């Protein structure tokens, strides 16, 4: 398992009965987590000091309950492979729909990995970030020196990502911000003859594009990976696929990426679960899976 263990401003404090107890900077949140199928005593004192609690409804969805939590706050992450003088990422957080805060902290383990590859490339690296959300991967790649094309179907998420970039000192970085359907964007890039040295994708299990395009990951992910290989440069550096869908386990990601990428470009694929350490008991909470290709 790849573990995001370099956080200072975030930690999972404890887990029990379908929920995780988290510290986001100065604030404590309790959020549902379907992986937490165990029921252990709520001995950690922070369970009684929560600032926000997302209650899941049995009918689907849920709602937040707040206890002295600001509308928005920020946390920081330092990329360990970059110089201390220029390695800090800043993320604006706010509780919004279906338990989310605007950041998936387990992805930091992937930011560490590819920021080092970008630095070691010794040349300009063009990165395409698809389903790019609020820009954690985008600003990590830009901090490492890459030029980035950030694509997401949600205008609100792209605006949020821009704010994170500005807060991270990247207002003038070479980042293209695009509100677009990811599949249609890639198809247009193929027709234009554009290529990228690295591709990151974090596809949702289900989603709709800005014009109502429907995305179902089980039906679409393999063909989409194959499609994106057509815009991967001949001397590409890496390809990253993230999955939070139960059926797309590491072995499935590995099989798809070996079939779609290695057969064309060589290199090697590794796929693992990703996770977050739980400070209260020393265990690791699984948080999805990632597949990585590199030369």
Would you mind describing this structure in some detail?
The protein has a single domain (72-294), classed as Rossmann fold. 25% of the residues lie in helices and 33% in strands. The chain is built from six helices and 17 strands. A hairpin with a 2-residue loop joins strand 2 and strand 3 (19-24).
CATH level 4 superfamily = Vaccinia Virus protein VP39
Mean of the pLDDT scores? 95
Rg calc: 19 Å
Question: Ranges with pLDDT <50 over ≥5 residues?
Answer: none
Within the largest sheet, what's the order of strands? 1-16-17-15-12-9-10-11
Report, as a whole number of angstroms, the end-to-end distance: 21 Å
Sketch the major β-sheet: 8 strands, mixed
Q: Give a count of the beta strands, DSSP E runs of length 2 or more.
A: 17
Observed structural traits:
Rossmann fold
List the helices and strands and how they pair.
Layout: E1 2-3, E2 10-16, E3 19-24, E4 27-32, E5 52-56, E6 62-66, E7 73-78, E8 88-93, H1 108-120, E9 126-130, H2 136-143, E10 147-152, H3 155-167, E11 175-179, H4 182-192, E12 198-201, E13 206-208, E14 214-216, H5 217-228, E15 238-243, H6 250-265, E16 268-277, E17 284-294
Helix pairs in contact: 1-2
Summarize the structure.
Helices cover 25% and strands 33% of the residues.
């Amino acid at each position: 398992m790849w573990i995001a263990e370099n956080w200072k401003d975030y930690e999972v404090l404890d887990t029990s009965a379908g929920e995780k107890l988290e510290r986001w900077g100065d604030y404590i949140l309790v959020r549902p987590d379907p992986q937490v199928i165990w029921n252990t005593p709520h001995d950690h004192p922070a369970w009684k000091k929560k600032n926000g609690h997302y209650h899941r409804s049995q009918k689907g969805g849920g709602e937040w309950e707040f206890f002295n939590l600001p509308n928005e706050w920020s946390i920081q992450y330092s990329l360990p492979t970059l110089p201390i003088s220029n390695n800090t990422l800043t993320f604006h957080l706010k509780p919004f729909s279906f338990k989310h805060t605007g950041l998936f902290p387990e992805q930091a383990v992937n930011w560490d990995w590819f920021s080092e590859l970008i630095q070691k490339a010794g040349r300009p690296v063009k990165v395409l970030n698809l389903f790019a959300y609020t820009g954690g991967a985008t600003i990590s790649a830009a901090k490492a020196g890459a030029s980035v094309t950030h694509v997401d179907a949600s205008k609100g998420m792209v605006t949020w990502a821009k704010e994170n970039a500005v807060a991270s000192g990247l207002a003038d970085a070479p980042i293209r911000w695009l509100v677009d359907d990811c599949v249609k964007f890639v198809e247009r890039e193929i027709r234009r003859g554009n290529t990228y040295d690295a591709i990151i994708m974090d596809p949702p299990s289900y989603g709709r594009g800005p014009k109502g395009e429907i995305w179902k990951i089980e039906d679409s992910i393999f063909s989409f990976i194959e499609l994106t290989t057509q815009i991967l440069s001949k001397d590409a550096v890496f390809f990253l696929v993230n999955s939070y869908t139960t059926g797309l386990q590491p072995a499935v990601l590995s099989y798809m990426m070996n079939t779609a990428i290695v057969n064309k470009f060589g290199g090697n694929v590794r796929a693992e679960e990703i996770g977050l350490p739980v400070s209260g008991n020393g265990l690791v909470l699984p948080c999805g899976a990632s597949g990585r290709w590199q030369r």
